[in-house]
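User: Hi! I'm working on a homework problem where we have to compare a predicted structure to a textbook description. Could you give me the structure for the chain below?
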Amino acid sequence: MSTTDKDALGIAVPGIVGREPDVRGPGPETQEELTFERKPMVGWFDPSQLLRTAVRAVLSDVFGQYADKREMQSALSPPGVHDYTDLDEVWIDFVADLGDGFDSTYSIAWLLSRKTLPFEGLKEPTQRGRILVMGGDQVYPTASREEYNDRMAGPYEAALPCVIKEPPPHLFAIPGNHDWYDGLTSFIRLFCQNRWIGGWETRQKRSYFALKLSHGWWLWGTDIALEADIDKPQLDYFKDVAKCHMTPGDRVILCTAEPSWVFTGIKDLTAFDNVEFFEREVIRKYGHTLGVTLTGDMHHYARYAREDGSDQKITSGGGGAYLVSTHHLPDTLTLPQRKARDGARFQPQVEKLSYRREKAYPPMELSRGMVAGARHFRPLNTTFAALVAGFYAACGSVAAFWMRPTTDVTLGLLRLAAVPLLLLLVAAIVFGLTGLCRLTPRISPRRALRIGALHALPHLAVIFAAAAALNAVADRFGLLQSVPVMVAFSALVLGVMAALGYWLGGRIVGEYLRIADGYGVNTNESFAAQRIEDFKNFVRLHIDRSGTLTVYPIGVERINREWKFSPAAAPGQAFYEPAGAAPRPHLIEDPIVIPGRPAAA
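Assistant: Happy to help. Predicted structure tokens:
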């Protein structure tokens, strides 16, 4: 397999994907021959990682407004529809939020690569998707050639190097916010230039697409960029598909990068407006129906449905990223639906539709119990604990000096000068913790400041109590009588404060995350800090010969953590196989069946 390819401009692109795989030759002899590195889970509380991600996100947001690659795609790539109507029945896999740690990502990739997956209660095993759809955030923490290669393309190539004696499965992808953090450059190079990722062949030319399936079914993938909006060229593309390529009554499986219906309930009251507009003005306006919406972004499985089952909204973000809680999901959602405009300028009347949560995975009670794991914050996030230690050392040493009694005029003046510095350090702690709280959606600045101050209190109490205790020890043993002893004592203060910050300060942060989750604050951060690899999921779809769509939600309670390298693997054999028991997939809930369109009389 080639480790060098060229993009559309003829520029060499090493180590991302190969050309069409060689089905005759064996795999690599040693792990050193592999073109990717097995990466651990992303440490979201690593200070340097936080800074890099923040910078990339800001730059992408700012420059993306002036150089939207979606508009460039429309000028360079002709529109088109991918036609699969020759397949009287078809299997489709949907996976999202992958490209994190190797073990979790490869566990799902390995399962997706299996030719069949049997499940208890099913007469026939499910089959590997003829089409694989990746639903956003294919890489973490930010998009780059190297990260895509190590965290997504490499593991997927290792899981399915090639297929033999059958057509290769096709791969389509939509970008999530993490794919956009380099302005979509790496995404376009990887997914939109007819490359291969192992045995999967990419087919799309743009970051959005329409697949024409059999029996009146369509699968659309949209690109909502960073602001959950759809640009005009993309909107025109889907309107043309709906108007010129579809038959009234056709049904759409819509893939989008975030569960805006859930965000309406917990994050942003207007989050669903863009999706509602798209459904109204592009799908329903031309006589079509939205049957299923698939998304990721939230790293769990959740399904909401209307009471009559006519619309299913499924979040399946379990492709490899850290687990996100389910116990804060609303039981019901009320979503707006307006009538499609017919040229009138007045605002159409809004109808309210009720959706009920039918399933969540992991179960809500289990999810609630997992919050306690935030107590282990320090050993899981040692670099952040070191940052806390630095603040303790700086603030504690200044506090100890300020609290130290003296009759010396020079030292008195220095004590007075230390007051602004001490206040600055205290403010940095308070506002830093307020910033952490502000990561919570829909929280007011005033409430965030109150919570940030409350979080700062135990930290400051430890710092000032330790400073007072150290000064008392110094007085008791006369450690401030000479300059050399004072210098040694100051070093002792720094060391003690740093140790307290690392051990006790790190524990306080963990306890804060545990308690805050109970009040709906920093719920994502309480799980991001734990980096839980288990409880992964993906969705398998099947359109049978009658046109019935069956949705199989597949969960993996425990991923595999031990892999055995297969030297010179036979064509089609995975480069890594489970060292012990293989990952055990199961159905999260009974298959969701959507009957085919009634035959014309």
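For your comparison, note the following. Residues 1-17 have pLDDT under 50 and may be disordered. The two ends are 53 Å apart (CA to CA). Good luck with the assignment!
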